């Protein structure tokens, strides 16, 4: 039996960072969340030990003590499983943009999401996991392809959000701004990747990533910076 692999929507789980539940979470939802996390962690342990391409879904199911069909209930593909914990850390940029506060612009909301992701990558506590994550991605063409698909999904989702604030003569502006935002994010993440794999000192890495972020967002026009601010 074959399964068509599509990039999974990155879940907006700012209140569930690293597995913490919400106060209003019911017993059934908690059980489902815990099962998902168990599968995700079992998969990560295998990926970290053996690499991505050497691990089969049947092995992940066995390690998580569930059936293979249960794994597919939570994750559409091995690629989605691999990227799950990074996704869970910061949620999706589209969710951040749509949930922005009154008076907050699209760019400000996106940057908040971007900063959360970059902070994780440059945190000394997460350094071993981040390094192994990037090593595995760099060794797997299918993960590299999936990563590019996620970038396109981010860009398309943000374009859709920006279009809500576009005028009749601004048909191309949402896509252009979305491309700029996702381009900045991709550049900084790739910079973090290269520095982590080179073994650069965390303090120097944080300083350079912060500078690159400031410079990247500083290139945006005043119009872009104010786009979509809600009254």
Description:
The chain is mainly alpha-helical. It has 11 helices and no strands. Helix 1 crosses helix 2, helix 6 (106-121) packs antiparallel against helix 10 (202-218) and helix 8 runs antiparallel to helix 9 (173-198). The N and C termini lie far apart (51 Å). The model is unreliable at 1-21 (pLDDT under 50).
**Structural class determined from secondary elements:** mainly alpha
Q: Using the alpha-carbon principal axes, give the shape.
A: globular
Largest sheet, strands/sense/barrel: none
Total domain count: 2
**Topology as a string of helices (H) and strands (E):** HHHHHHHHHHH
Spans where pLDDT lies below 50 across 5 or more residues:
1-21
Q: Percent of residues in beta strands? A: under 5%
Spatial extent as radius of gyration: 19 Å
Report the average pLDDT across residues: 86
Q: What's the tally of helices? A: 11
The count of DSSP E runs of length 2 or more, i.e. the number of strands, is: 0
Helix-residue proportion? 55-70%
């Amino acid at each position: 039996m074959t399964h068509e692999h599509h990039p999974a929507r990155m879940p907006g789980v700012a209140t569930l960072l690293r597995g913490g539940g919400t106060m209003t979470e019911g017993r059934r939802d908690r059980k489902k969340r815990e099962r998902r996390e168990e599968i995700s962690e079992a998969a990560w342990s295998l990926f970290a030990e053996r690499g991505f391409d050497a691990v089969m879904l049947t092995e992940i199911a066995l390690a998580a003590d569930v059936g293979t069909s249960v794994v597919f209930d939570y994750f559409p593909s091995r690629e989605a499983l691999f990227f799950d914990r990074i996704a869970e850390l910061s949620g999706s940029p589209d969710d951040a943009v749509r949930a922005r506060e009154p008076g907050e612009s699209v760019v400000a909301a996106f940057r908040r999401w971007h900063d959360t992701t970059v902070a994780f990558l440059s945190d000394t506590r997460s350094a071993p996991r981040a390094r192994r994550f990037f090593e595995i991605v760099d060794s797997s063409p299918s993960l590299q392809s999936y990563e590019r698909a996620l970038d396109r999904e981010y860009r398309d989702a943000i374009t859709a959000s920006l279009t809500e604030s576009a005028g009749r003569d601004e048909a191309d502006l949402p896509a252009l701004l979305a491309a700029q935002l996702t381009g900045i994010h991709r550049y900084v993440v790739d910079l973090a990747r290269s520095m982590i794999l080179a073994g650069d000192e965390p303090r120097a890495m944080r300083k350079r990533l912060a500078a690159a972020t400031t410079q990247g967002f500083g290139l945006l026009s005043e119009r872009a910076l104010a786009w979509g601010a809600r009254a």
